[in-house]
Amino acid sequence: MLPSLLRPLTAGGPVSPPRPHGKSFIHRSELKQAKRIVVKLGSAVVTRGDECGLALGRLASIVEQVAMLQNQGREMMIVTSGAVAFGKQRLRHEILLSQSVRQALHSGQNQLKDMSVPVLEARACAAAGQSGLMALYEAMFTQYSICTAQILVTNLDFHDEQKRRNLNSTLHELLRMNIVPIINTNDAVVPPPVPSSDLQGVNVISIKDNDSLAARLAVEMKVDLLIALSDVQGLYDRPPGVDDAKLIDIFYPGDQQSITYGTKSRVGIGGMEAKVKAALWALQGGTSVIIANGTDPKVTGHVITDIVEGKKVGTFFSEVKPAGPTVEQQAEMARHAGRSLASLLPEQRTEIICCLAELLTEKKDEILTANKRDMEMATSSGRFSQALINRLSLSSSKLNSLAIGLRQLAVSSRDSVGRVLRKTRVANNLDLEQITVPIGVLLVIFESRPDCLPQVAALAIASGNALLLKGGKEASNTNKILHQLTQEALSVHGVSDAVQLVSTREEVEDLCRLDTMIDLIIPRGSSQLVRDIQRAAKGVPVLGHSEGVCHVYVDSEAAIDKAIDVVRDSKCDYPAACNAMETVLIHRDLLRTPVFDQIIDMLRTEQVKIHAGPRFASYLTFSPSEVKSLRTEYGDLECCMEVVDSLQDAVDHIHRYGSSHTDVIVTENEETAEQFLQQVDSACVFWNCSSRFADGYRFGLGAEVGISTARIHARGPVGLEGLLTTKWVLRGEGHTVADFSEQGSMKYLHENIPLPQGVFS
User: Please, which contacts does 95-98 make with residues 24 or more away whose CB atoms are closer than 8 Å?
Assistant: First the structure.
């Protein structure tokens, strides 16, 4: 009996029922719905670099992915090359062996002359290699309890109606029995390829190579997705080796004229032009197509599963072209306009920010109406926590505070870009300057908090940086109008494209991979979002913090009124904020004292749920619920309470369980306070004041892009200075390094030149 005749339900979960065929998927995210999938393995994917034999490790990885998808309940088919290469290896071995035997018999000696292998005819190689190739697939899939079946086809099998029906029936029966069909052209008898003159209509396509075979099979079997693996990342606008060749993320049927094709791959009889024509033919027939790299060792182990999960891999063929630009085009537009923004006079950038502040006030009613729609949709969906909904909310007072902060920033930022930090006389008439310049293109990804958009936009404008914004869907209406107002302000000086709002269905992970277009990523949201971005970002620095586990340590010499006020404000002013207190540390000597009792009473009055730390719980007969983790960021009216023996104990606790964000001491002992401020290694350390002061606006920065717990570039609330870098400018008069050699006529001076206040390059 054949194994696995019944489709299992695995950890991957059942796949949704087959969708009606006839329309291809519009977005990559829909590929998760694909049930029937063809994976086409090109010759360059299956064969080794020497073209004699198979790339076994690569093939095993591909088989593992196909088996995983099959065991999720999908219907997988493979169109494979490789028979010729496998046969060439076998025949070459046989010929060499035969020659060596004949030579030995002829000469009577063991010494053999140099032997040459004749050119092997491809059809003979295919005939010799087909059985071995199939045996290899059979052995590999058996490891996953999956049965395979071999099918060899030619043009006649599709053009003869009876043969076509027989083929269709056989494939459907194999799929019904949970068997993976392994399909190949019958290269032992197939005629030589001819030009692809018939790849024009939907009804006719000749089987000239495995690209056309996969396309014809996909349409014939009403396949949802065709994955064509090759030896390039996907489709480029020009040959991949050419300078400035760009990988095309999404290809539309009307874009053929914009492509310049190169030569075909080292093996196989197709080429990228043949792949594109076959892909478009399949697309017209209702099958979605992706061309991707199946040879890159960095991605081969997950390329197929990544595609099915909707990740941005290879080139996706789509019939529906979106109305707006792609995110890559937006990044290019932002960079171009950002350079113009950076070249504006400081007064002009100030004018843009002030204009935005005025628009926030003038358009207040429209903003709040849009925000109300978002709030209603978020609440009715039932998918969002109360803390997230609180962050989503805007009010008149919030907008007024935003406008005030922007005006403050406009005044304070005039002397930022182009400021000379140091000046050195390297030698006579050779002066060096270090000046501040924009970083480039910023990508800010934020959840909920739409008030983040004008803050970050103003900081980008002030620092001369281009900006890509990706907000959460839950705030789409609010973000849209705030972005429109931002572009309206930018248009005052003709740089409206410098700030772009990404509204396409782009996955955050895909945005983080735009390493050639993005210079800095700034996440604003949950700790999970920040961690996901830090993992996904490859080659692009990430500015931010993953968690806000902030502490308030109430020392044995704390004043009652200060302790109560600081703890209350730190926890209750805005519990969802990253600078809200999550753990209150109580000195052991305060237990069962008025200070301790009043802190407990205040928290209960404010309806704060207390979770007892292990030491605190040990002191109590009936304690609150014991904390699950001392590293928890609650983001709500909840906190952990723990007992410590000393200042050093409190510092050690913070270093062990904190997130290096903001930590506070409440004490009347100045020496104890100074020790705390010096020893605690956090971005912000406070004495007798609320943790909620850890904010760019409250620090006088005007606005902030977030709070960083990193130890390089920027730390704490990141305002304007954190969005600038430097460059070195050297001015000479024909100086050469040779002038300063032992035989040269010049000597280095390296004299620091004093800078008057407010010097600009």
Answer: none
By three-state DSSP, how is residue 341 classified? helix
Indicate the pTM of the whole model: 0.76
Supply the pLDDT for residue 199.
39
- Determine the Cα angle at 375 with ends 373 and 376, to 5°: 65
Contact 603, 639 (CB under 8 A): yes
Q: What is the pLDDT of residue 391?
A: 84
Helical H segments across 108-209, by residue range: 122-142, 155-159, 161-176
% helix / strand / coil in the chain, to the nearest 5? 40, 20, 40
The H or E element containing residue 77 is strand 75-80
Distance between CA 311 and CA 301 in Å, rounded?
14
State how beta strands 751-752 and 420-427 pair: antiparallel
**Containing H/E element for 180?**
strand 180-185
Q: What is the 3-state secondary structure (H, E, C) of 233-256?
A: CCCECCCCCCCCCCECCEECHHHH
Per the structure block, which two tokens stand in for 273?
């032009």
Q: Is the Cβ–Cβ distance between 584 and 639 less than 8 Å?
A: yes
Strand partners, 39: 78, 227
* pLDDT at residue 52, as a whole number: 65
Q: Residue 301, SS3?
A: coil
Q: Cα–Cα distance between 449 and 222 in angstroms, integer?
A: 44
63 Cβ contact list (under 8 Å, min separation 6): 137, 140, 141, 144
CA-based max dimension of the chain: 110
Using 70 as the pLDDT threshold, list the residues of the chain that sit under it.
1-22, 50-52, 99-119, 190-208, 262-270, 505, 546, 623, 702, 757-761
pLDDT of 709: 86
Name the residue among 610, 611, 679, 616 with its Cα closest to residue 643.
Answer: 616
φ and ψ at residue 362, rounded to 5 degrees: -65, -40
Token readout for 678 is 């010096």
Gap between the terminal Cα atoms of the chain: 82
Cβ atoms of residues 292 and 8 within 8 Å: no
Closest residue by Cα to residue 517 from 466, 445, 590:
466
Instruction: State the DSSP H helix or E strand holding residue 752, giving kind and residue range, or none if neither.
Output: strand 751-752
Distance CA 504, CA 431 (A): 48
Of 543, 575, 55, 467, whose CA–CA distance to 267 is shortest? 55
- DSSP secondary structure string, 446-482? E-S-TTHHHHHHHHHHHHT-EEEEEE-GGGHHHHHHH
| Cα(382)–Cα(731) distance, integer angstroms | 62
The CA distance from 109 to 116, in Å, is: 19
193-241 pLDDT tens trace: 544 444 344 344 455 578 889 999 999 999 999 999 998 899 998 888 7
Residue indicated by tokens 């910023």: 442
Q: Closest Cα to residue 465, out of 432, 441, 445?
A: 441
Nearest C-alpha neighbor of 716 from the set 686, 673, 671:
686
Cβ–Cβ < 8 Å for 82, 137: no
Per-residue confidence (pLDDT) for residue 543, from 0 to 100: 87
Question: Residues 113-127: pLDDT tens digits?
Answer: 455 556 677 788 888
Pairing of strands 288-293, 225-230: parallel
Q: Which domains does the chain have, with CATH numbers?
A: 28-317 (3.40.1160.10), 327-419+436-536 (3.40.605.10), 550-680 (3.40.309.10)
In whole angstroms, give the CA distance from residue 73 to residue 6.
Answer: 10
DSSP label at residue 191 = P
**Which amino acid is residue 50, in one-letter code?**
D
The one-character DSSP state at 497 is G
CA distances from 708 to 266, 648, 717 (A): 49, 25, 6
Read off φ and ψ for residue 752, nearest 5 degrees: -75, 130
What pLDDT is stored for residue 538 in this prediction?
78
Q: CA-based angle 71:75:81, to the nearest 5?
A: 105
Whether 677 contacts 515, CB under 8 Å: no
